[in-house]
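re: ur question from yesterday

yeah so i grabbed the chain u mentioned. its 235 aa long if i counted rite. heres the sequnce exactly as i have it in my notes:
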Amino acid sequence: MPLIIEVTEVHKNYHVGKVDVPALRGVSFNVERGEFVAILGPSGSGKSTMFYVLGGLTRADSGRVFIDGDDFTRMSDAERTRLRKSKIGFVFQKFNLLPTLDAKTNIEIAQDIAGKKGALDHNYFQRITELLGISKRLNHRPSELSGGEQQRVALARALINKPSIILADEPTGNLDTQNSEAVLSLLRQSNKELGQTVLMITHNPEAAEFADRSIHMRDGSIVDPAREPHLHPRK
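ran it thru and got these structure tokens back, copy pasting raw so excuse formatting
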């Protein structure tokens, strides 16, 4: 399968006063089109920084990042924004739904942000809302939805522009076990049925079990899980 994400020797430091604190230390990995990959590691491992670099939300200090063949690291901010809008859908731990809008409008607003206002594919909208089990909850505001339903709306919003890649940052962090499993199953289902590549950031080994494979991080580097038993490698 062709590669859709290519990361080579990426370094990222944060400046705390006069001290440079390394967040990423020469990270390299690839993701094939259509894969579901988990980046797994404890707090402070660098996985969230990797999420922001992959999403074009922050720049790497050095190294290369290719997204679907385009070099993120050599783009202007405007170019990265255009690529992000067209090829990447985001799912966050905090649902980030607008409280005054109903679920339907919260989903559709992603098209406005991407400059696709008025271009809604109604058949696709119906397909994903039925797939996610929220087709009968579209007229409800976030305060009228359960946590699991809000995360499903957030997932539908990430899918509506038909991105090549879904980046999910701790998507079950605010959910109970039942809703966590439901959302992870839906991510898996969207990966298989809609063809999106999914890259999920998580600290939870059980969540990582839903992925095709896991990339283990610690202290800003990729580690061999066989040598890091506390990371609970997949069996």
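noticed a couple things. Residues 56 and 81 are 7 Å apart (CA to CA). also The chain has one domain: 3-96+158-231.
anyway ttyl
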